[in-house]
Amino acid sequence: MLSAMYQTILCLTRWFQISALHNMKKRLQTFLRNIIQKPYELQKLENLLFMSTLMF
């Protein structure tokens, strides 16, 4: 019983990590597109990258 709960929690954690990475990838792609048009987006990108290094 306990191990089944543990497995479920592991699966959920994994799924959240994957979806978070996917969202970050999508966000990075839009930032990179915007950087070409607006240089100040670079600052936002730097902040995002800094925050993501703190999380891992």
Automatic annotation (TrEMBL):
Domain of life per record: Bacteria
This protein's name: Uncharacterized protein
Species the sequence originates in: Flavonifractor plautii ATCC 29863
